[in-house]
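Provenance and format

Records in this collection were gathered into a single text stream. Each protein contributes a sequence line and a C-alpha cell line. The two records reproduced below are adjacent in the stream.
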Amino acid sequence: MPTPAQLEEQIYACEGFRVRLTPLKPAEKKLPSYDFLVMAPQKWRISDWKIVRLRAYIPFVREVVVLRGDEKPAKTDIQLGSLRDTYYQAKYGSLAATEPEQASVTSISENTKQP
C-alpha cells in the first residue's frame, strides 16, 4: 500500500495530471494503490474522474485537489483532455500546431536511423 505521495505519483503516471491528497487522518501512512492501467477518457470531467476512479479512497482522503500544468488548482470542472493540455502548455507555451525547430527535427531523425 502506497503512501499519499506515492499514490499521487501513481495517479500522475496513469492519468497525466497531478493531484494533491489530504488524508482524512494526518497519521494515515498507507492508502490503497491506484490500480488503473489506462488513463480516463479525455471527455470525462474532473468530477467524473473523482466519482469513478477515487471511490476506493473516500474512507481515507479528506480532499483531492487536481492541479493544472502551472501547478495551480483547477478551479472549474473541465474535461480531462483540456486539463492535460495545460501540462503541454506549461512546458511548451502554446497549444498551436507549429513546425519544430530544426535542431529538434535533426535529433529525432538521428535517433531513428538504422545501422
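Adjacent record:
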Amino acid sequence: MGIKNVALPEDLLAAVAEMARAAGKTPEEVIEEATRRYLAHERVDRLVRRNEQRARELGITEADVPRIVEEFRRGHRGR
C-alpha cells in the first residue's frame, strides 16, 4: 500500500488523536476506517440516487414498492 501525507485542520487532527486513544488504535487506523466508511456510504448514496431517478423515469412511486417486491418474490420462490 502506498503511503500518502494528508493535511488536516488541527481541531480535526486532535479529535482523531483523542478517538484513537480511546479506541486503542493509531490515528492512522482511525483515519483509514473513517475513509473506508465514507467511501462505502457514498457508494450507497450514489446507488440510491440512480435508482430513485430510474424509478421516476418508470413512473414508480413509493406506494408501488410493496407490490413490486411481492411480485418479485412470487416470481422467484423456490429458486
